[in-house]
Amino acid sequence: QVQLVESGGGxxxxxxxxxxxxxxxVSISVIYTMGWYRQAxxxxxxxxxxxxxxxxxxxxxxxxxxxxxxxxxxxxxxxxQMNSLKPEDTAVYYCNAAVGLxxxxxxxxxxxxVTVSS
Length: 118
Known about the structure:
Elements: E1 4-7, E2 10-13, E3 18-24, E4 33-39, E5 46-52, E6 55-59, E7 67-72, E8 77-82, E9 91-99, E10 105-108, E11 112-117
Parallel strand pairs: 2-11
Antiparallel strand pairs: 1-3, 3-8, 4-5, 4-9, 5-6, 7-8, 9-10, 9-11
């Protein structure tokens, strides 16, 4: 069982920055792909960014150039640095881990609220 705990959300003005953290209960050095997703009220959950071992990170077009995903295997933690935040970035942000190579199982955190005021 993998537990993921997000932190770092909050209220910020447009143009500001936040850094989200996702702490895992297991070593993430063997987790092939981890990612951040978000869900705004009344909208489906959407991909924000993913980071896969040995592969360049992948970003949604809406956050390219503003957000940076990273992982620290020594701390079993993944991060999302969010700069130049916009009101449309307001959502609950979820951490995801796809565990296993042949039949990956998805694990999710409980989510952290990010609110960007105009």
